[in-house]
Amino acid sequence: MRPRYLTNLNLQDFFETACEIPYQKIDSELFPNIELWIRRDDLLDPLISGNKAYKLIYNLIEVREQGADTLVTCGGAWSNHIHATAAAGARFGFKTVGIIRGERPRVLSPTLSDAERFGMTLRFVSRADYRERHSSGFMNRLGLDGPGIKYVPEGGANQRGAEGVKQLGTILEKTSPIEFDECWLACGTGLTLGALAGALNSSGIRLVGVSVLKDGGSIERDARYWQGRCADVERQVSVVSEAHCGGYAKFPDYLAAFQRNFERGTGVPLDPVYTAKMAYALHREDLAGSLSGRRILMLHTGGLQGCRKSIKK
Ligand SMILES: *Cc1c(COP(=O)(O)O)cnc(C)c1O
What we know:
This protein is α/β, with parallel strands linked by helices. It is 39% helix and 17% strand. It contains 11 helices and 10 strands. The strands form 2 sheets. Strands 1-2-10-7-8-9 form a 6-stranded mixed beta sheet. Helix 3 (80-92) packs parallel to helix 4. The longest helix has 17 residues, at 159-175. The protein is globular, with a radius of gyration of 19 Å. The site of pyridoxal-5'-phosphate (PLP) has 19 residues, from helix 2, strand 7 and helix 8. Pyridoxal-5'-phosphate is lined by residues 50-52, 80, 155, 186-193, 271, 274-275, 301-303.
């Protein structure tokens, strides 16, 4: 399947493209007891894809509406958000600055070397300084608080980001090929899970987030926060917190073997940090027998640029 391509920066084009994203039925012996589909948001665009595109869209529009010419954001050396932001700046004609945790390494990660190639200015800051990124004087201390500058927090985790994900919820309700019992997705900050939960209030679908971090508790807390900012009604979301396979960006052999099997059997590429762990968690839950007969949707949240990563075992 070929990716779509976001040509213009406008909401209507973006959401029209998002409405064309295919849902693919997965027939695989890895999931013997459920009816499984995957929504392919990795195919939104070759570079600005997955949930990061939804978190960015309103932020990008705001840069333009405010007459700003520079978007500043933060991330680590393998950040899908940094990569997508740099690509969006190049595509839509504004400058981008990426504040990166740690010293500049002699050899940049593929993510950061792409970002630089797309025109992003990389500012490396010490880990101690990076920890201050949520404090009010942070941009000022870096000399980055002029009128032409818009700041977007790490991962696109702000109100604008949540609004974009809410739109994804509306699109899910409009375009789902069948009525699903559950929707599974990978979680880092929990914003996508929370904002979707806020958006899907009217339908009976249960949302299940798979934590890719050891500390799943913070995800539940943050998801609840973003859910509260997107809806008035409480909705139950659950977080699978023991499928992180050793922690963030850890990629043990059994997970690599599962990812290969999945990709060979379905033709759907996964990324090692997020979507492989989500699919693996669902596989295990299916084998455990607790999901028998359920109709389940997985969200492909993108991140495929991270496949080039020389990951830690
Ligand atoms: C960032 C990311 C996530 C996690 O999204 P959150 O809103 O931070 O929970 C999931 N999947 C992929 C591929 C991502 O890049």
